Amino acid sequence: MSLPVDRPLVRTRLAGVCLVVGAVLLAATGALDPSMPGDSSGDLLTYAVAEQGRWTAWSLTLAAAGLVLLPAVSALGRAVRGRGSALSVTGACLAGAGMVGMVLVGTSEADVPVLAGSQLPVPAEVVSVAERMAGGPGLGIAFLLMLPGYYLGVPVLLWGLRRARLLATWVPLVGTAGVIGSWFATEAGDVWELLFRCVVALALTATSPVLLRGAAPQPAPRSVLARNVTA
């Protein structure tokens, strides 16, 4: 006779695996991140035509990272009871929104090579269409979810887990440094972007044991203990 499976524990450990896989995918986005010569729609489309494979790989990897990290972030938010729970849940909500935004941005950007076509220079009418699409609400909402969710939500979540005494102090320190560095590295070049994405990935991987081993149970409030003793 087989023993019953602890399904909540299995789901938590699967979320831990998702956290590790998502961290690897996040680091891969740093390696694939497009290095464009300018910020205009014409520059973007020109790069997408010249580097269609890299652009598509980057956008799909970004979407996959957000999709895989979403259940892990949700599980981390549920892992804390008592001390640090407010900070952890706030960070999980922000980071979860960031992961949704990451999926939306990645899937949207995957269409850019299709829009750009294969002709260089990119026709002016195609550039005009791309500019109108970039000004639409869909992509704007995606970035509004992704940017605060990633750059603010991830550090808040890690510090909440530290307050709950589920992480060593170096983990949120490294994660916060990586997120801040990643923000400034967008203008510093591919090597720095890859470096800081890997730093964030390291912090997320170091967080995975919280889920892989199951979060340590939080101590019950004294009032509950008192009722149990008198019962």
Automatic annotation (TrEMBL):
<keyword id="KW-0472">Membrane</keyword>
<protein>
    <recommendedName>
        <fullName>DUF4386 domain-containing protein</fullName>
    </recommendedName>
</protein>
<feature type="transmembrane region" description="Helical">
    <location>
        <begin position="191"/>
        <end position="212"/>
    </location>
</feature>
<keyword id="KW-1133">Transmembrane helix</keyword>
<feature type="transmembrane region" description="Helical">
    <location>
        <begin position="139"/>
        <end position="159"/>
    </location>
</feature>
<feature type="transmembrane region" description="Helical">
    <location>
        <begin position="166"/>
        <end position="185"/>
    </location>
</feature>
<feature type="transmembrane region" description="Helical">
    <location>
        <begin position="85"/>
        <end position="105"/>
    </location>
</feature>
<keyword id="KW-0812">Transmembrane</keyword>
<feature type="transmembrane region" description="Helical">
    <location>
        <begin position="55"/>
        <end position="73"/>
    </location>
</feature>
